[in-house]
Write a structure and sequence with these properties.
alpha/beta; Rossmann fold; Helicase, Ruva Protein, domain 3; Zinc Finger, Delta Prime, domain 3; 4 domains; 5-stranded parallel beta sheet; binds zinc ion
């Protein structure tokens, strides 16, 4: 009979449990010193080992050679407990046995001594799903527990477990398993199964599993069914994940402000089976890694490992400013939220990509002014803002959108080509350190017809733009006026002369 990996490789001993050493160590000590509590509450997300640890604890208590922190795993009790069929270790699924009847029965039976073992162990999974009467009945047993009875409750949602129950239990919080631990566990199984997975594949599986070993093993099951040699492409296909190489290319084309190519790449990913929500999340994680790499280097521990390799990460980490990356992540988050609520998620994501490909129009005022001030490369003239900030070299390498914004600014000489700028911009209080003349230049540039027009075509873009330039007194009315002028000019002039 074929057993899925999660069951075939369910840990049998405390030391085999992945990523929950803080729990297993405490339980081993409790068994060793004979101080096992009569009720435990295991909290944690799905697939992190709660049921596994409950069974190991039951074995430790009821093993023929026990109680012992190292159950033999061979006696009748150990073997039956391991597969969940022992008559003295009763597993109840709280989600499907929510009623009081189940708990009444439990209470009646708890009064009886164990049939063949030392202890009667009740394991109630998803205990928060029990109804209130069921909880009340359970509480009576918890208040006066027979000495031979142990309770182990588990829940993915401890807040929903009544305080009266929680306070009578010793609580353990299971952690999400780290990617490194997941990869380690997957590697062990691949070795035993003689399964070869291409470089980066296991890491991708671990990332997608978000701390759940069960989910990670589920993916490995699917892959193993496809053959003994698994390529990275297979992995990504099964995960429905966007290829890191595609994300890397997308970052490059966004920095080049190549909107058409960016949309093509997005289309390719979605056609390839990645959902809008997944894509938005994966790309946001990629951008977050760029941000982390800019400050902590391409090998930092804090990286989520979203990029294909450290080299790409190092090359791309200086392409955008921290503000721009944060803004892009925010756009992606909004798109993902909309995708969850509406069927038009794809459009939201496309709009986000369009905006990300036009960042030079959204460059922060202060930064643009500094670029003008320095006259050289954007931001190299300013002192680094924080310790560990991107080096001058990193900043110089990238900053495509910044450079273009600067070029635009330098083209906009005071007094021309937009005579209204100096006169139309209302008197405003400029932030400290902002040169008024420079501010006027920027305003002139911002009011240039093509910028105004593109801003007006997209309401949120205009909003963001206005937000960024608020201190310069640019009003939507002003932009609209410029846009109307532009439209009139266009009507009067052949397009090639624009
Ligand atoms: Zn045993």
């Amino acid at each position: 009979m074929y057993l899925v990996f999660a069951r075939r490789y369910r840990p049998e001993r405390f030391e085999d449990v992945v990523g929950q050493q803080h729990v297993t160590r405490a339980l081993r000590n409790a068994v060793e010193s004979g101080r096992v509590a009569h009720a435990y509450l295991f909290c944690g997300s799905r697939g992190v080992g709660k049921t596994t640890v409950a069974r190991i604890l039951a074995k430790a208590l009821n093993c023929a050679e026990g109680p012992t922190p190292e159950p033999c795993c061979e006696c009748d009790a150990c073997r039956r407990i391991a597969v969940g069929t022992d008559i003295d270790v009763i597993e109840i699924d709280g989600a499907s046995n929510r009623g009081i009847d189940a708990i009444r029965e439990l209470r009646q039976n708890a009064g009886l001594t164990a049939a063949r073992s030392r202890f009667k162990v009740y394991y109630i999974d998803e205990v928060h799903m029990l109804t209130e009467p069921a909880f009340n009945a359970l509480l009576k047993t918890l208040e006066e527990p027979p000495p031979h009875v142990k309770f182990i409750f588990s829940t993915t949602d401890p807040q929903k477990v009544p305080e009266t129950v929680r306070s009578r239990c010793q609580r353990f919080d299971f952690h999400r398993i780290s990617d490194a631990d997941l990869v380690g566990a997957l590697e062990d199984i691949c070795r035993t199964e003689e399964l070869t997975v291409e470089e980066g594949g296991l890491k991708a599986i671990a990332r997608s599993a978000r701390g759940s070993l069960r989910d990670a093993l589920g993916v490995l099951d699917q892959l193993a069914a496809m053959g003994r040699e698994v390529t990275l492409e297979d992995v990504l296909h099964v995960l429905g994940a966007a290829d890191a190489r595609l994300l890397a290319e997308l970052v490059d084309v966004l920095a080049e402000e190549d909107t058409a190519r960016a949309l093509e790449l997005l289309d390719g990913a979605l056609v390839g089976g990645t959902s809008v929500e997944d894509f938005a999340e994966q790309f946001a994680r990629y951008l977050r890694d760029l941000l982390v790499a800019a400050y902590c280097g391409p090998e930092a521990d804090a990286l989520a490992g979203a990029a294909a390799d450290a080299e790409t990460l190092a090359r791309q980490s200086g392409m955008f400013s921290a503000d721009q990356l944060t803004y892009m992540m925010q756009l992606l988050r909004e798109a993902a939220l909309r995708a969850r609520r509406e069927t038009t998620g794809r459009i939201a994501l496309e709009l986000a990509v369009v905006r990300m490909s036009r960042l030079s129009e959204l460059v922060p005022v202060q930064e643009a002014l500094e670029a003008l001030e320095g006259g050289g490369n954007p931001r190299t003239s300013a002192e680094p803002k924080a310790k560990g900030a991107p080096s001058a070299e990193e900043r110089r390498r990238g900053a495509g959108p910044l450079r273009r914004m600067k070029d635009k600014l330098q083209r906009a000489k005071p007094g021309d080509p937009s005579p209204s700028a100096a006169t139309a911009a209302p008197e405003v209080e400029l932030p400290d350190g902002v040169d008024e003349r420079k501010a006027r230049q920027l305003a002139a540039c911002a009011e240039s017809p093509e910028v105004a027009r593109s801003a007006l075509q997209e309401e949120p873009l205009m909003q963001a733009f206005i937000q960024a330039d608020k201190t310069l007194g640019l009003s939507p009315q002003l932009l609209r006026k410029r846009a109307e002028q532009q439209a009139e000019d266009e009507d009067a002039t052949p397009p090639e002369q624009q």
